[in-house]
């Protein structure tokens, strides 16, 4: 199995995961103020929505790599 097919399989799996999850969240810490020895920080929860078209596009590209990756032109 060559590297192109492996990348294709990984893209297919990533696309399926993106479609299944729909979005993911992470916490971002920002430093708002620093007054001498005191430091104030704020933790913000960010949510990123994954578009359906992006998941489908990744699956299609991965499928193309798997199908065409083994051919020698």
Please characterize this protein's 3D structure.
With 73 residues, this protein is α+β, with helices and mostly antiparallel strands. The protein has helices at residues 3-21, 52-68; strands spanning 23-35, 38-49. A two-stranded antiparallel sheet has the order 1-2. Helix 1 packs antiparallel against helix 2 (52-68). Keywords: Membrane, Transmembrane, Transmembrane helix. This is DUF3185 domain-containing protein. The chain crosses the membrane at residues 51-70.
Brief synopsis:
Keywords: Membrane, Transmembrane, Transmembrane helix. With 73 residues, the chain is an alpha+beta fold. Helix content is 49%, strand content 34%.
Fold blueprint:
Layout: H1 3-21, E1 23-35, E2 38-49, H2 52-68
Antiparallel strand pairs: 1-2
Q: What labels describe this entry?
A:
two-stranded antiparallel ribbon; 2 helices; 2 strands; 34% strand
* Cα-based radius of gyration, to the nearest Å: 20 Å
| Structural class by secondary-structure content | alpha+beta
Query: Count of DSSP helices?
Result: 2
Query: Tally of extended strands?
Result: 2
- Tell me the strand order in the biggest sheet: 1-2
Low-confidence stretches: none
Sheet with the most strands, sense and barrel status: 2 strands, antiparallel
Net shape: elongated
Output the helix-strand order: HEEH
What is the helical fraction, as a range of percent? 40-55%
* Mean pLDDT score: 88
Ends apart, CA distance between termini: 17 Å
Q: Kindly estimate the percentage of residues that lie in beta strands according to DSSP.
A: 25-35%
Integer tally of domains: 1
